[in-house]
Design a protein that fits this description.
Length: 369
């Protein structure tokens, strides 16, 4: 069977390829396919996790090629966006349709700075930017990670590992946003005060290192949401190359996979303070409550989960709507409720709307936004 560029088969998108066969292995589709330009077949694991061991795939008589969690890839040059098949974290097929000119415009923009520091959280956006900085600037690029009480557990260690994978020099800078009463008051301008604090620390280090500019990972989609932190960054002269080159979140996932970044399909993980309802003062104890509660959900295989804190100690749990039946299964629901109370929440609730990024902003009036 011959497939053209946009032919879909068994939840896969392959093109300019000849499918040899498709096998169901441990509930995962495994396809052997041969690009027209090559004679050898390759094994690609798709759909859910690619955790089925290579030995079992080999025993099935399939030749092993790169395996990527929640998706599949084809070999591409790290500097070439490629035209291979890609999957977003939703598992739906996605083609890498980023024009080379757009990618090159990003690299040219970063190269033009001469030297730069990247505000590096370890998330998708800042990872793509850090990779672009390494390609464009080499050892004249540095990644700076700000960490404080609102950093979710495990995120700093992940950022350190990722910087090492990307190959960029990396420094960690401690911040203490809770020392600022404007930040603790948790008004709709909280992110503005937070970004001011972070920029002050990072820009001091940029000056000490003799670098030309501080870059952040804001992208074109961020303009659609309430982002007072972006205003603070602009006021401090921080540049946002991804937004300036009009990269959307979906395009960044494609570029991240083309550049073989291991977090290409990682869900976003904003600061813990974003889980606290506006008007509820932020304390370190509350942030610890939220972190412990979300770790429980992650440990029970909810990759995307938020525990929102409302006035009166009410916890509002958000998971994707498709995961609600599993969350509400009696045994897990009971254990989750017990854990939330043990964390210090007075009330345990589940949001039937499911997970929505930035859902706290729904309460804002046009004046606040």
């Amino acid at each position: 069977m011959r497939l053209t560029r946009r032919t879909t088969c068994m939840d896969m998108v392959l093109y300019h390829a000849r499918v040899v066969d498709v096998t169901l292995l441990e509930s995962r589709y495994v396809a052997r396919w041969a690009p027209e330009s090559k004679s050898s077949a390759a094994c690609i694991a798709v759909n859910r996790s690619a955790s089925a061991g290579q030995s079992r795939i080999t025993q099935a008589g399939l030749q092993v090629a790169p395996l990527i969690l929640n998706g599949f890839s084809q070999e591409t040059s790290p500097r070439h966006c490629g035209r291979g098949p890609f999957f977003a974290r939703t598992g739906r097929p996605m083609l890498c349709d980023i024009p080379e000119e757009k990618r090159d415009r990003l690299l040219d923009l970063v190269r033009g700075f001469g030297s730069a520091a990247v505000a590096f959280s370890g998330g998708l956006d800042s990872s793509v930017l850090a990779k672009a900085a390494v390609i464009a600037l080499g050892d004249r690029a540095v990644a700076l990670t700000a960490t404080g009480p609102s950093t979710p557990g495990g995120e700093l260690d992940a950022a350190v590992r990722l910087a090492r994978t990307i190959g960029i020099r990396h420094e960690v800078i401690e911040t203490d946003e809770l020392s600022d009463p404007d930040y603790r008051a948790n008004t709709p301008e909280r992110c503005y005060f937070c970004k001011q604090i972070i920029c002050r620390h990072l820009l001091r280090r940029v000056e000490q290192l003799g670098l030309a500019v501080l870059l952040d990972g804001a992208n074109a989609d961020d303009r659609r949401d309430h982002r007072p932190g972006s205003r603070a960054a602009r006021e401090r002269g921080v540049r946002s190359p991804l937004a300036e080159c009009e990269f959307t979140k979906d395009e960044l996932r494609q570029l991240a996979q083309a550049w073989r970044l291991p977090n290409w399909n990682k869900p976003s993980s904003p600061c813990l303070s974003s889980r606290v309802a506006y008007g509820v003062p932020i304390t370190e104890a509350q942030l610890d409550q939220i972190d412990r509660a979300e770790r429980f959900l992650h440990e029970h295989d909810f990759a995307v989960a938020r525990v929102r804190l409302h006035e009166g100690g009410l916890a509002r749990v958000e998971v994707p709507a498709d995961d609600l039946p599993r969350l509400l299964e009696s045994s897990l629901r009971r254990r989750l409720t017990e854990h939330l109370h043990a964390c210090g929440f007075a009330y345990a609730t589940v949001d039937l709307d499911g997970f929505r990024s930035g859902s706290m902003n729904r309460s804002l009036t046009p004046k606040d936004a």
